[in-house]
Design brief:
It contains 25 helices and 26 strands. By secondary structure, the protein is an alpha/beta fold. The protein folds into 4 domains: 65 residues, Phosphorylase Kinase, domain 1, CATH 3.30.200.210; 258 residues, Rossmann fold; 227 residues, Dimethylsulfoxide Reductase, domain 2 (3-Layer(aba) Sandwich); 94 residues, Barwin-like endoglucanases, CATH 2.40.40.20. 58% of the residues are buried. The structure holds ligand MGD (2 copies) and molybdenum atom. This is Anaerobic selenocysteine-containing dehydrogenase.
Length: 743
């Protein structure tokens, strides 16, 4: 299947009929394509790609073309709902719903303090929403329990960037992909999950033969099928492969000594770990032929320019952070960072997932600030005009930890914004039981699997109906203008948050309202000041410029108004003790390091090599469960399908879940194409039709995770496990075990 044939530029039937085109950005995936929304009579009637937008040059993903269809869906919610004594959700006014939320949160806050309340948000919202969540959460509710679905998505990016370079922020950008001789796509099925960027890569490859493409994925994905070198390693063995590659680079002296000597520290510690990683050893663990590993090492060792992307095959995997650190190590060994065509490009997934980290809505602190550095906390307190002791600073607790706190009755108020955890979290049986305990607010335009356990449902405005900014996977900030007025009865996420703060009477230390702004643009202006002097400095941006320039990358300042295409061009990293975002963690236990421990290394602007010790998957196939269970995405759908499930054109392409099986495995089990099979994991059972072919290696199966929101659907997450990476706390959604039964 060639996805290039399904890229659409525009979905408007009749250009003449359009009253106006409104500047926006696609809200599906992290590429951040510039779009224009076609409006007639306050109705969205289509979408087009912006031709001179540097990211997509007019291209659109197939789903994007129908992006506005769910807005007009008949089953949208137009009024808040409150669960009544009979247990049914019943329409209510905004005052009734907000009063109840305020009463309940005050009750819990009084009884338990900030540890009793949590906000679980998203990577699909606006910076202005996230910033407000961070401010309300830390300085208003005084909770540190702020997390988001980004925990399942790109939490690993944050940690691997902090540990290697001192702060969050991807070093390379999409522009570097256009110049790279070699691109390594690591656990990243970009053909299905970033189709526009893929088209950008393939168009160049067709015209020039470049880049050389290395794809690391156990499956023969559409991406892998185009690769020059496909490494279909055994699931969960990323780090075995990368350790051998790192060792080869050192052994063959394919390293940049000047760069290493001048700009890095700690290579010797790493060498001790990797010198035992022969190609033979890695071959046994990964199942890859020795020649393929040697070829990969040589290509990575000799290429003049290299961009490496990582995504869920790395992040939702065992050894997640260590895997990404190994990729950073490779770039540092070769000095392939901070120059054109070079750098690690740890991807985002959702359209604005990195943005939530940047502004501090997700357990991070605004402006990549270090919670363990009192100076940084003082800066936040000054910006917000609150006392330092009134800022709730606590350990970042991921959603899986929060589930445990719900089970124990510790979290009693849980506000779920723009995410559908009763489909998307692993080990659903546990999730449901845990989330039934607290008082749950769900902010969603539709009834979902999660609203089934909600006590209050708030209906928000959707994409196209609100204004704000998003941050894509390469640090580009785009502005989305409001194309149409939201339907009667709904409020934007931003308005809901600001209204909550007002009703809660959150104040600064002079008794003025904590949230002094009332429009997204005012919030952005305030945030800009908070970002000043930090890696993500946005002081050079305005909504007007963002629209005119079709997005700008941070840092963007008065001195550097065009923004930075790539970070670290001066090879000065963000590791100085008073600048860095964190003092780091012990790589095995996740214990936070102290300032003293960090200072003992004294990186002071140098990048750090990190030791990458292979652990491997904790749950492996065995007698009772002989197959690997892998889960992930299809080009046609977006996550839990609350949007694409309402686009008939996309539903038609992939209406039902299935399990992909290797032909030989299917023969052995006498399973026929399309026949329903039972998949049993240690946690749950799912029955879906079989799809047989050569995509999967023997002993491995794949189930798309898009299903389970709608009545009667099977959910892959009934089977997945909730173990997490020690540093990023991201769950290992890609690897668990299962067996197949013929029904
Ligand atoms: N069509 C579509 N596009 C999307 C999304 C969507 O829902 N639909 N969601 C967006 C979001 S939020 C995200 S996070 C991204 C995710 O984008 P991707 O990460 O590209 O998508 P996935 O399918 O989750 O996983 C990628 C690949 O990891 C492989 N993998 C599994 N185990 C391993 C392993 O041990 N090692 C390696 N190297 N690879 C392994 C899987 O076989 C799979 O092909 O997509 C974004 N784009
Ligand atoms: N097994 C398995 N599980 C996975 C993954 C996997 O690869 N395998 N991937 C994980 C990853 S990377 C991700 S990102 C998550 C995604 O998982 P989720 O975030 O749970 O999935 P979505 O369907 O994007 O949920 C977004 C919700 O927001 C609602 N919504 C839409 N627009 C708006 C709006 O403007 N405002 C508000 N308030 N709500 C809105 C939608 O109706 C929907 O219910 O899934 C994770 N789960
Ligand atoms: Mo994601």
């Amino acid at each position: 299947m060639d996805h290039r044939n399904v890229l659409h530029e525009q979905s408007v039937a009749d250009n003449e009929a359009v009253d106006r085109w409104v500047h926006s950005t696609c809200n599906l995936c992290s590429v951040g394509c510039g779009t224009e929304i076609a409006v007639k009579d306050n109705q969205i009637i289509g979408i087009g790609g912006i031709d001179d937008h540097p990211i997509n040059k007019g291209r659109l993903d197939p789903k994007a073309k129908y992006q506005w269809i769910p807005n007009n869906s008949k089953d949208r919610l137009y009024t808040p709902l409150i669960r009544n004594e009979q247990g049914d959700l019943e329409p209510a006014s905004w005052d009734e719903a907000m009063d109840l939320i305020v009463r309940k949160s005050k009750e819990v806050l009084k009884e338990k303090g900030g540890d009793g309340v949590a906000i679980y948000s998203t990577g699909q919202g606006f910076l202005e929403d996230y910033y407000t969540i961070g401010k309300i959460g830390r300085a208003g509710m005084k909770t540190h329990l702020l997390d988001a679905n980004t925990r399942l998505c790109t939490a690993t990016t944050e940690w691997c960037l902090i540990e290697s370079f001192g702060s969050d922020g991807v070093p390379a950008s999409f522009d570097d992909m256009d110049e790279a001789d070699t691109i390594m796509l690591f656990g990243h099925n970009i053909a299905e999950t970033g189709s526009v960027l893929w088209d950008r890569i393939l168009s160049r490859k067709k015209a020039t033969g470049k880049p050389y493409l290395i794809v690391v994925d156990p499956r023969k994905t559409p991406t892998a099928r185009e690769a020059d070198l496909h490494l279909d390693l055994k699931p969960g063995t990323n780090l075995a492969l990368l350790n051998a590659i790192q060792n080869e680079l050192v052994k063959n002296d394919w390293v940049d000594h000047d760069f290493i000597n001048n700009h890095t520290l700690k290579l010797n510690d790493l060498k001790e770990e990797i010198n035992k990683w022969t190609i033979g050893k890695a071959s046994k663990i990964t199942g890859l032929p020795e020649e393929k590993i040697a070829l990969a090492a040589e290509k990575l060792g000799k290429t003049d320019t290299l961009v490496s992307t990582t995504l869920q095959g790395a992040y939702q995997s065992s050894d997640a952070t260590a895997t990404c650190l190994a990729i950073n190590n490779i770039h540092l060994m070769r000095g392939l960072i901070g120059k054109p065509g070079c750098g690690p490009l740890h991807m985002a997934g959702q359209p604005s997932s990195s943005g939530n980290r940047t502004v501090g809505g997700v357990g991070t602190y605004p402006g990549n600030r270090n919670p363990n550095n009192p100076k940084h906390i003082q800066e936040i307190a000054e910006h917000w005009n609150v006392r330092e002791e009134d800022l709730e600073i606590g350990p970042n607790k991921g959603i899986i930890k929060q589930l445990e706190m719900m089970e124990k009755g510790q979290i009693e108020f849980f506000w779920n914004i723009h995410t559908n955890p009763l489909v998307s979290l692993p080990n659903q049986e546990r999730v449901r039981k845990a989330m039934e305990k607290p008082f749950v607010v769900v902010q969603d335009p539709f009834l979902t699997a999660t609203t089934e356990i909600a006590d209050v449902v708030l209906p928000p405005a959707m994409w196209g109906e609100k204004e704000g900014t998003m941050e894509n996977a390469d640090r580009t900030i785009n502005v989305l203008r409001k194309a149409v007025e939201p339907p009667n009865g709904v409020k934007t996420d931003f308005e809901i948050l600001v209204d909550y703060a007002r009703r809660m009477e959150f104040k600064d230390k002079d008794g003025n309202p904590l949230i002094g702004y009332s429009t997204p643009e005012e919030a952005f202006e305030e945030w800009k000041k908070v970002s000043a002097g930090r890696p993500c400095d946005m002081t050079g941006m305005t909504y007007e410029r963002l629209e005119k320039e079709n997005g700008l990358r941070w840092p963007c300042t008065a001195d550097n108004p065009e923004g930075k295409t790539r970070l670290y061009e001066d090879h000065h990293f963000h590791t100085a003790v008073d600048y860095c975002q964190n003092y780091g963690k012990n790589p095995y236990t996740g214990r936070p390091l102290s300032r003293e421990e960090y200072e003992a290394t004294n990186p002071d602007g140098r990048a750090l090599f990190n030791v990458t010790r292979f652990g491997g998957p904790t749950e492996k196939p065995r007698e009772e469960f002989p197959f690997w269970l892998n889960t992930g995405r299809l080009i046609w759908h977006w996550h839990t399908r609350t949007k694409t499930g309402r686009m008939p054109e996309m539903e038609e392409k992939a209406p039902k879940a299935f399990v992909e099986i290797n032909t030989e495995d299917a023969e052995k089990l006498s399973i026929k194409e399309g026949e329903k099979v039972r998949i049993v994991s240690p946690r749950g059972v799912v029955e879906v039709p079989a799809k047989i072919g050569d995509t999967m290696n023997k002993g491995e199966v794949f189930v798309p995770f898009h299903y389970g929101n709608f009545e009667g659907e099977e959910n892959s997450n009934d089977m997945t496990m909730d173990e997490v990476d020690p540093l990023s706390h991201q769950p290992v959604l890609k690897h668990s075990s299962c067996r197949l039964e013929k029904i």
